[in-house]
Amino acid sequence: MSNPPPDKPLNELLSTSLVDIYVGxxxxxxxxxxxxxxxxxxxxASKFYTKSKPTASSKSFGLPDDDDxxxxxxxxxxxxxxxxxxxxxxxxxxxLDLYFLSEKFEIQKLGDDIVETVRAFYHxxxxxxxxxxxxxxxxxxxxxxxxxxxxxxxxxxxxxxxDAIPVHWERALKKNGQLAVDIxxxxxEWHLEGRSVPDARDASMDRGRDKxxxxxxxVEHNVExxxxxxxxxxxxxxxxxxxxxxxxxx
Length: 250
Prior knowledge:
Order of helices and strands: HEEHHEHHHEHHHHHE
Distance between the termini: 33 Å
Shape: elongated
Largest sheet: 3 strands, mixed
């Protein structure tokens, strides 16, 4: 994604020239200010402008594969430079779709705003991104993506502080090696002091293991029976946020 353009007052970007954008399979029609749209989006600038012709050569463009709601949210941001704060976890889904649009349209400022809004929602609600949210982001982003890193960093904290690994996360980590690697990378970025991490090699220390535990599989078995994380269960289609009981402060 290219660097964001220098800020300009809105009045300087509301030119008389307009463009027609058709969105979705029903070709929902949007009439937008050409200069405003192309100032913020290199994607649209490349569609409407050429080096030999610095004004729009065509006044219309179609986005048949995109959905109406994310584009409506995009238009709202375009004219207000603000996002509506999500009231519920279900509001995160449209924001993620808007985030993917920001990447397509090459608008770094919009993407940064969405990452901050999603981060603030989970932090303010003392909750964490659910597995389905994380999988959705992984399916639609590349490595080193800011939204992906924010979410995997949150999950790393959630799993580290939890009493045990919930069954659905354990299954997902076994299937998705990249997610497991990214969680380890995220923990490494905490730069923990060695003395604060139990040392399994030192027989003279309490190494942090439950003395009554048979092994790692016993921990997973406890989760499956609901003995460790009573607030966690298998996610349904509508369940994406997690508010686990942890052994530390959220």
